[in-house]
TrEMBL record:
It is an enzyme of class 4 (lyase). Transmembrane segments: none annotated. Pfam families: URO-D. It comes from Neogobius melanostomus. The keyword Phosphoprotein does not apply. Belongs to the uroporphyrinogen decarboxylase family. Keywords: Cytoplasm, Decarboxylase, Heme biosynthesis, Lyase, Porphyrin biosynthesis. This is Uroporphyrinogen decarboxylase. It is found in: Cytoplasm. Pathway: Porphyrin-containing compound metabolism; protoporphyrin-IX biosynthesis; coproporphyrinogen-III from 5-aminolevulinate: step 4/4.
Length: 372
């Protein structure tokens, strides 16, 4: 273990402050903890008045390109709530930007691609060899700065969009109800679709490795639009790339003795739970449409689970939130479990209820662990 400590010193990139609360990392690896760790997707978001103030009048992607702003926005929720992890403020759409596409944030509409991919010929507009350090170095800087400023309080999570989810945005040009333009590619242009998914996968692997080198202590892959695919298309157009990402990132990290837990969150893809639990990710994130006990059964103790309270449950009174949390924690069990919502917080949510959620997870899980 002295050797192990020595190895850790050698590979520690930038002399970061010592981690004080590693509950989230231990739960990700299925180890024992004193309480169930908790964080929220979109915890750095518009439900916080200080977030709205910091973001006011500034372009969204300009904010993403400012390491100081990203650091401040990442830290804001930690000042209010005893979350067990932080997620770097950024967006999944910085990857299509790095590949040469324009993406604007339009107020009231969300992210918009003025010139989306329409036909396979349009793939020629994408950069073939993306210099990830040059195009996305601002994210790496934000991570390094935040890892220092977090002062070892909790681990810092890096993230990316999954290939299918990013492909969907690049073809749709923004959010969509049906994703029929992107799905049209899958049926009509399967080879071009696979080519695009491979291009995205290559950039994503480099991007995640860069995030770890910069200081990210865990990685989450968001396949937010997995649910629009059925089981057959998911197996063909998403799962192989999700697996490839985890395999390649882990193999590369192993070369330098590093090991960072990876989380896959394929929203609304519970038809793929068995497959996802055998895809080299330590943690499978769950949306709220699946029952905790059945998720445990179907993943057979192979992975840790993360989730999955309906975000809208935060509209309940606080005592009701506590009851809902207790049921959820009982359903998942306290080992190999990271509490979270089944998707991100909404802008109209009451920060006090977010606090009640975090407190309920800690309180109920501490009691349950003592009773074991
Ligand atoms: O001005 C604003 O603040 C706009 C709201 C916002 C925020 C706070 C957007 C626009 N992005 C973000 C930050 C963000 N995006 C984070 C930060 C860290 C945190 O969670 O605290 C993360 C992890 C993301 C990831 C992201 N962006 C996803 C995956 C997660 C998910 O919600 O499924 C997706 C799909 C996006 C695209 C995106 N960015 C923003 C919006 C409104 C959307 C969704 C658009 C749509 O599909 O309609």
């Amino acid at each position: 273990s002295i050797l192990r400590e020595h190895m850790e010193t050698l590979t520690r990139p930038k002399d970061f402050p010592t981690l004080q609360n590693d509950t989230f990392l231990r739960a990700a690896r299925g180890e024992e903890t004193e309480h169930v760790p908790v964080w929220c997707m979109r915890q750095a978001g518009r439900y916080l008045p200080e977030f709205r103030e910091s973001r006011a009048g500034k372009d969204f992607f300009d904010t993403c390109r400012s390491p100081e702003s990203c650091c401040e926005l990442t830290l804001q929720p930690l000042r209010r709530f005893p979350f067990d992890a932080a997620i770097i403020f950024s967006d999944i759409l910085v990857v299509p930007q790095a590949m040469g596409m324009d993406v604007l944030m339009v107020a009231g509409k969300g992210p918009t691609f003025p010139d989306p991919l329409k036909e396979p010929e349009d793939l020629q507009r994408l950069r073939t060899a993306v210099d990830v350090e040059k195009e996305l170095g601002y994210v790496f800087k934000a991570i390094t700065l935040t890892r220092h400023k977090i002062e070892g309080k909790v681990p810092l999570i890096g993230f990316t969009g999954a290939p299918w989810t990013l492909m969907a945005y690049m073809i749709e040009g923004g959010g969509s109800n049906t994703y029929s333009k992107a799905k049209r590619w899958l049926y009509r242009h399967p080879e071009a679709s696979h080519m695009l998914l491979r291009m995205l996968t290559d950039v994503i692997v480099e991007y995640l490795l860069g995030q770890v080198a910069a200081g990210a202590q865990a990685l989450q892959v968001f396949d937010s639009h997995a649910g629009i695919l059925g089981p057959v298309q998911f197996k063909d157009f998403s799962l192989p790339y999700l697996r490839d990402i985890a395999r390649r990132v882990k193999d590369k990290l192993k070369e330098t003795g590093q090991d960072v837990p990876m989380i896959v969150f394929a929203k609304d893809a519970h038809y793929a739970l068995e497959d996802l639990s055998q895809s080299h990710y330590e943690v499978v994130g769950l949306d709220w449409t699946i029952d905790p006990r059945s998720a445990r059964e179907r993943t057979g103790g192979k992975v840790s689970l993360q989730g999955n309270m309906d975000p809208c449950a935060l509209y309940s009174p606080k005592d009701r939130i506590s009851e809902i949390v207790q049921k959820m924690v009982e359903g998942f069990g306290t080992r190999g479990y990271i509490a979270n919502l089944g998707h991100g917080l909404y802008p109209d949510m009451d920060p006090e209820n977010v606090g009640a959620f975090v407190e309920a997870v800690h309180q109920h899980s501490k009691l349950m662990i003592k009773q074991i």
